[in-house]
Amino acid sequence: MGSLPLPLALAARLLPVALLASAGWALAAGPSAATPSAEDKTTQEQEKTNDSAAAPSASAAVRKYTASPAPCGGVQVATIKSLVPGAKTAGQEIASTDKAVRRTCSWNALKGFDYRWLDVSYEVKASEAAAEKAYKDRVADKSGGGAVPGLGDSAYSVVNLSTEDKQQTREGVVIVQASNALVVVTYNGSDFETKKAPSTEEINKGAIKAAKEATAALGNGQKT
Length: 224
Description:
Number of strands: 7
Shape: globular
Strand order of the largest sheet: 1-2-3-7-6-5-4
CATH class of the largest domain: Mainly Beta
CATH architecture of the largest domain: Sandwich
Largest sheet: 7 strands, antiparallel
Order of helices and strands: HHHHHEEEHEEEEH
Number of domains: 2
Number of helices: 7
Strand content: 25-35%
Structural class: alpha+beta
Helix content: 25-40%
Distance between the termini: 89 Å
C-alpha cells in the first residue's frame, strides 16, 4: 500500500491524541468531579454554620443594651414628688461594683407620720436569654402577683403586707424584662400614726407607674 498524502498522515497521527484529550476532559468533568464528595459537603456545611454563628442578626444587635442608664434619672421628678412626698428628688445612687451592668437609685422620706420608700434598679445581662432566665427566677420567688401587660417584653407585679411590732408595711415589687435588661422597682409605705399601711391599690399603681418610666429610660443607656 502506498504512503498516505501528508495531510491525511498528519490527521491520522493526531487522531489518537485528540481522542485521549477528549477522554481526559470527560473524566475530569464527569459526574464524579462535578458532584462534591460527602467529605466536601460536610466541610461546606460546617463553613456555612461557622459564618452564621460569626454574624449575628442585625435585629439582635440593635436590641442589646450594653450599659445601664443613670438610675436616679429613670423616674420623672413629678412622679418622685407624688410617690415619695418630702424626698430629695435627686435620689441617692447605691454603690455598685460594676455600674455598666447594675445600678440602683433610692428615694425615701417621712412626711408627718407617712413613710415612703422607692427603689429603682437596672441590671444589664450578657444576652436576652440570660435576662429571660433571671426574670423567670425572680418571678418564681414572688408568688401571688400577676402580669403587667404592655410593659417591656415581660412584666410582673406583686404586693405583700408585713407586720412587725403591730406596725404594718405594704410593699409592691415590679419586675420587667426588656431585651437583655431587667428593671426592678420596689415601693413601700407605712403610717406610723395609725400603724396601718397604704392600700394595695395605691402601692401597686405607684410601683407600676415608676416601672413604666424607668423602663422607658433604658434608651438612655448605651446600645450596640
